[in-house]
Amino acid sequence: MDNGQLVFSRASDERHVRSLHGLTRSEVANMIIGVTQGYSKVLEINGVGFRAQLNGRMLVMNIGFSHPVNFELPKGIEAGIEKQTILTI
Hints:
The structure is a single chain. The chain contains one helix and six strands; from the N terminus they run αββββββ. It has one helix at 15-36; strands spanning 41-44, 51-55, 58-62, 69-72, 79-82, 85-88. A hairpin with a 2-residue loop joins strand 2 (51-55) and strand 3. It starts with 14 loop residues before the first helix and ends with a strand.
């Protein structure tokens, strides 16, 4: 911690050490974003006849198979559908 910021430094400029330095920085940055803003994913469905709907906690998708694909949302995951876009939080 340096002046209210997390600072990562590396012991040398070797290729392996540089890659681990970048990995550590990005992992910690992702953790901070996850805690402060939360994670979300967006899935856009494109195709003739492709659609999705929510039945309670079950996501039902018609995405080109001969049968609908049913996916139960895990606990703690919320989803919403807007036109052809699935939003998960």
